[in-house]
């Protein structure tokens, strides 16, 4: 076992996980705002939040590369396969203090991920319902604009060209 | 943690959205309803419960009735003016139609034919055919003048009768506004903006403003007071009544009075104002013009005729016309019964003398009207010109007012009208926004799965 390589790899992994924890925490904050935007049907705000999310995702992808680099270094030192390596497996090869530090960060990261997953579950539910409602309305409006709807007087609300309100003047 | 917002508040939020959608349905269902104002739902976050700082979802804060009150004010102020001029144009057009000028049967033509008949008689005073032609032409002149007078009286009577419908409608609308005031106050007290009821009331106020020159005052509790000439037609939930009372001093035409105390309703404009102005000012002025002309013809013809002598060369002092003006002009029955009484001679004992008839024919060129400055024809032309100008002014103003109102209506529709296109665009924006949000959530969830494998 190459102790220096292990220490360096574990430190790098801790840094990466801490970075991921911070990014997930910001994603939780965005998810909360996103929830507010969905319930307020504020699509403009929702779009702004999506842009923020995309930026965070870019950072997360960059950190993923760094995480794999650290895991490969650890694999070289310990033989624990980088692909599918768990924190517990890695910690077992580390000095106690470093192991505890890595596991603490891992727990914090997991807590943020769980919070984010819960937020997403609620948001996904809201989005599904909202979408379903909107889809129904779009279908209804299409029917009206196509002029195939009639009032009790036998008139069609849609006039020629599908323009109910003439703004030509 | 904010994430603890439960599905409960999510459901509450979706209900709020359902209400917003209901507003859209309502807008679409009323896309062709006259006077309908688009409604817009305002959503807002529910305040956090306790000290958690966690939002409780969203609720409907208010339902806004999209309406521009300034445009309403402008439309109403133009409407009573349009109603006024429209009523004037209607009556004056009928007067113009009654005169029917230029034509072979109009007053100008028969007046010319009357004096031509005298000219013909001056050339053949002994011929009974020429005497008969003079009497016939006189009868035609009297008939046409009386017909015109009768037509104008009928148009005045018609304006008076139309007041019944207009005043009846004002009373009905005032009751409607008062009843709607009551319901609006009640509904608004519950926190509902009473948008549909307010639309109905605005429609009633729009129509009222065509009928009379009203002023309105909007109150905080939602009710509107309506005033005509400074007196209240509607005050809160009470409507005052307007009566039509026959006035024997004005040819039994109606006076428009407040039922409460009999005071005259000071409606200066609107259809009622226009009808009153026609009945009491415009039409009497036209009638006076006609009477002035016909009275002058009667006076002048009778004066010259009475100075002349009949076919027997003895009879003199006979009036050709009876009556005093266009309403009662007629041929003297004695003359029409005895053609020999037609005074063609200017001197007695000269049966072949046609100078009396010539003197009568020459009246056509005499300037006896308007202080000795106008002939009958010139006066008549002036009358017709004044009438034509009045008709053109009233019609032109009425049309211009109608165009202004149409433009304001379009402006109002652009503010308050329902556009299905706009609703559709909004819905598609929602659809796209939700779709994108769902995709990103799915991407991040995949990453979380991988993360759990490592930290698990």
Notes on the structure:
- The complex is a heterodimer of chains A (169) and B (456).
- Chain A is 76% helix and 0% strand.
- Chain A has helices at 3-39, 43-78, 87-91, 96-145.
- Chain A is mostly helical and 169 residues long.
- Chain A has one domain (3-150): Methane Monooxygenase Hydroxylase, Chain G, domain 1.
- The model of chain A is unreliable at 157-169 (pLDDT under 50).
- Chain B is of the alpha+beta class.
- Chain B folds into 2 domains: 1-66, no CATH class; 74-404, no CATH class.
- Helices cover 61% and strands 11% of the residues of chain B.
- Chain B has 10 helices and 10 strands.
- A 4-stranded antiparallel sheet of chain B has the order 3-4-5-6. Chain B has a two-stranded antiparallel sheet with strand order 1-2.
- In chain B, a hairpin with a 7-residue loop joins strand 9 (321-322) and strand 10 (330-331).
- The longest helix of chain B is centred in the middle third of the chain and has 62 residues, at 128-189.
Helix percent band of chain A: over 70%
Question: Approximately how much beta-strand content do the residues of chain A carry?
Answer: under 5%
Which term fits the overall shape of chain B? Answer: elongated
Radius of gyration of chain B: 38 Å
How do the strands line up in the largest sheet of chain B? 3-4-5-6
Name the structural class of chain B: alpha+beta
Q: How many individual helices of chain B? A: 10
Count helical runs of chain A: 4
Order of helices and strands of chain B: HEEHHHHEEEEEEHEEHHHH
**Percent helix range of chain B:** 55-70%
**Would you identify the regions of chain A where 5 or more consecutive residues have pLDDT less than 50?**
157-169
What top-tier CATH class of chain A fits best?
Mainly Alpha
Give the tally of β-strands of chain B: 10
CATH architectural arrangement of chain A: Up-down Bundle
The SSE order of chain A reads HHHH
Distance between the termini of chain B: 22 Å
Flag low-confidence runs of chain B. Answer: 1-7, 51-55
